[in-house]
Design brief:
- This protein is of the alpha/beta class.
- The chain is about 40% helix and about 15% strand.
- The protein has an eight-stranded mixed β-sheet, sandwiched between helices.
- The chain is globular, with a radius of gyration of 18 Å.
């Protein structure tokens, strides 16, 4: 139990997800973490959301945390993970949800916003719309090395060798670095997490984008809040800041200063206030009056 949040295993499309769910609330918030975290990423946000009367649903992604780790890499393809999140909401009888998502979780969130009517609002943390993410420039090419490394078989070995020396450096700004290292350096953990990246290889998407072969971007009809930390070491500002061009609903961009990729841990009070203001602005009760 995290922050008094009950948890259980839930079967979704043939695999078992570890899901924290408070069970009750006026409106519902779905929290989706990214690499290399699990649901514990949201500990500060969960407290604030519960205090303000929201139902909180917080799964560990497939291959992460306590969720199942199927060996079939295709099971981790983005379309399957999106379908799992839709199935989760249906199984929990949630018709409308505020989705707040970070890193690879935000990639799933963007797809949910584009392809389901279940989202009341979407908050994208760190990762912008994929069409903007795949726009290559001198500004962003320096950040792309990690996406090229992480799909290779050697990556887990590189991260694990010498007591996680490289991983320790990559995660140098993570407030939970030592806890993350303890979890990810366990046998098989990095390989389990890597399947998501192998199933959705950024270099292949980038090649398609550079060749001009990407499909037309899907316009997002959901009110969307984008948040980025100005000291982010793996993602650049324009891919979030310029995402508004793909959104037909309300768009708001916020930059967290003096914080990096894990700003929800570094600046929890500031982030929580942003989130609570955004959710209140787009509450069903307020908009129905």
């Amino acid at each position: 139990m995290l922050n008094n949040l009950p948890a259980k295993m839930i079967e979704l499309n043939g695999v078992e997800y570890f899901v924290r769910d408070s069970g009750t609330g006026e409106e519902t918030v779905l929290l989706i973490h990214g690499w290399p975290d699990d649901g514990n990423l949201w500990k500060h946000q969960i407290i604030a959301l519960l205090e303000h009367g929201y139902r909180v649903i917080c799964p560990d992604l497939l291959g992460y945390g306590l969720s199942e780790t199927p060996t079939d890499i295709s099971r981790y393809q983005l379309a399957n993970l999106v379908n799992d999140m839709i199935s989760l909401l249906e199984k929990l009888a949630v018709t409308k949800v505020h989705c707040i998502a970070h890193d690879y979780g935000a990639v799933i969130g963007w797809e949910l916003a584009a392809h389901t009517e279940k989202l009341q609002t979407f908050t994208a943390m760190s990762v912008g719309h994929l069409a903007e993410f795949l726009t290559t420039s001198l500004e962003n090419v320096q950040f792309l090395w990690i996406y090229f490394l992480n799909i290779h078989d050697v990556a887990p070995q590189l991260y694990r060798v010498n007591n996680g020396c490289l991983l320790r450096e990559v995660l140098r700004s993570h407030p939970h670095r030592e806890e993350i290292l303890d979890n990810t350096l366990k046998p098989g953990a990095l390989e389990n997490m890597q399947r998501l990246e192998k199933a959705n290889p950024v270099p292949n998407y980038l090649l398609t984008a550079l060749a001009g072969e990407l499909p037309e971007p899907v316009i997002i009809p959901v009110p969307t809040l984008g948040i980025w930390g100005n000291q982010d070491e793996v993602l650049w500002e324009s891919q979030m800041q310029n995402s508004g061009k793909y959104i037909s609903a309300d768009w708001q961009y916020e930059k967290i200063t003096d914080a990096g990729h894990w700003f929800m841990l570094e600046k929890p009070q500031q982030v929580n206030q942003l989130l609570l203001n955004w959710l209140k602005k787009h509450s069903l009760e307020l908009n129905n009056n």
